Amino acid sequence: MIVRWFASLADRFFASDHGLTRFRYASQAVLSVILAVLVLGAARVPSTALLLGAVAAMVCSTSMRTGTTGQRAVNILLFAPAMAASLTVATLLSPYAFAGDAAFVVVMFIAVYLRRFDQLGSSLGMGTFMAFFFAMFLKAKVTDLPAMYLGVAIGASSCAVMALLVFRETPASVLRRTTGSIRAQVARLVEELVKLLDEGDPLPESDELPRGVARQATRMHETTLQIEDRADLLGLDPQWQRQLVDAELSADRLARTTVRALGDDLDEATRADLAEDMRGLHRFVDRDPTAALTLDTDELLLRIARYDIQGDPGRLATDPAHHTLLVRRAIREMLLAIVQMRQTTVRVQTEPQVPRKAGEVSEREPTLEDAEGGFDADDDLADADREPEPPHHHELASSTRSAIQASIGGALAIIGGELLSDQRWYWAVIAGFIVFAGTTSRGDLLVKGWRRLWGTLLGIIAGTVLATLLAGNIPVNIVLLLVCIFLAFYSLRVSYATMTFFITVMLGMLYDILGTFTPDLLLLRLEETAIGVTGSVIAAMLVLPMRTRSTVLTELHDYFGALNRELVDAERLLVHADRVSVIAATREVDRAATDVRTAIAPMLHRLSPSRVRRGHATRLLTLTEESSLAARNLARAAEPGALAGLPSAARTLDRIIANTEVLLAATGTPPATAKLVSGPALAPTVDVHALAASNNGGGEPDRIEVLHLRRTINSLDRLDKLLLGMAAPLAQTISVPRDRSHSADPHPAIRG
User: Quick one: which of 655, 662, 653, 660 has its CA closest to 736?
Assistant: First the structure.
């Protein structure tokens, strides 16, 4: 019992941190700081240089989130000189208050502007800002510069040792960690579904998943996207990548079919049977892969085929028997995906991998995960023929706007901070500067500032209590300081308020170690934080403001553009049998959907003043995520020429593509009038078996072909419905009038 409890606890940990990314990120930061402090301590440098070296190691580690070994090395090589240059300017200007403050404002402008160059720019920008900040914090003198240069060099070198040697990533290590994370995520998802079945409470009729189930499905999706972004750089096996995507989609289908079945009044015996099937599935995703590796995949395909539902127009979609059948088929599809992944994982880890050349494709048998069956080097040529995307002018404007806002907000923070304290005013500056990191709109900045204030307040309370209890106990203070650094980095991508909390507690430990701790000092930090956040909010609100709604429309415009390109490729593949990679296009759809989620987040926060607006934003986000999932399903199931003999499918695709073009124009600048056109669903009118047989030259259709064909048609119907649903929430921003020419049509044009 205890062993099972620990196994479940471990699964929770691995499922919450896909691929142990956050754990490695935090561990790398802490060990970099420890190594830098040990080396500098052994060199007997002054305390100012030692502290600066620790800061350099910690800040440098923030830029080691992604990238190849070479990219990380370039980051570190440029980081140390940039930090040293900023440190020199700050030290030389420290005797001249006005010139120093003006230079600090310029540094803030440059640091924020550099973020437009992705991770490298963010790294250099943060390094230059933190060097200037700590030169003031440490009251550096020109005579201290050589020792501080040494501190920066040792800090950056410590980061290099950890990032490039100790925590170096290889395809084998990434595959091993990711496989463990995926396995844990599936296990947690199955446990959540079993819990729902055991409780037996009917769920409301809704497309939304319960919170626990949705969280696990989201984590699996995030893991898949991360792997796809880095797969080519790390040389991961392409077949394994496709099986991973199929496992993700199978997990989502399992979750949704189970929730829909529970939306009906299932009897206790049926729920118990489904729960037992789920527990059987859980056995095959256990840590011991033996059960999955010995399973006969052909037998699984036969069992899936037994639940081959043609669809009876006379049967209601809410018929419990219908949903129960779908759940059992989803269980077997999930099991098949896991079995195939584990078998491929074992093969990849035991066989020597030969690096592939550009355009070379590994040989593989056509299986369930091989959704596009016919992907070859011609796909690269097809992608090369596509016109390059025009540059997004709003990106340049956004980087310049944010830099101007940050510098003005920093100037206000300097003025307000110095009025409050001529010794600690720089706390206001760093609070205002950090708030601008990663924000996309004024609403985003307001929410982030609010979280920083709350994190600082709670951190002051905890830091005061701990520093009072541990006064003078240096070893324990050092341990807690390192723990706070670890937890701050570990929570950075999850909760900004939590990260701020641990940073504030860490400062309490640091002041206690230096012998300068007082409760008033941390209270002053809260006041300076409030001033800095207020200055940034004023700048964001009054100087070149970027409304949250405008940011959301910009990201939606990019999303509809990516979706339109995928559907055009899907039509070429499905109707005209052109050799194009729809999978490649759907990755852009997923990334664009993630950007929409980030942009729309401030509208969903409780600080948002309008409940109606929050409701529309929630609906819009749900539709975006659901449509990106439907597009992903379509990409996985699409096969060359599958719908060539179905004119109604070609018309449906044309209509869906036209609707994406309408939505693309409606979210553009300036927005155009939107007229979305509806039409009949495909699934009730298509005999999938007959179509598959026709595609097969009149012979008996293959089970996989039937499964893919049905999934393709269902995905098209789902996309059609979701895009039409966009009209209502977007009506708050764009005009979606009724098309009068369709007023007598049983499927009138949708309007908001």
Answer: 662
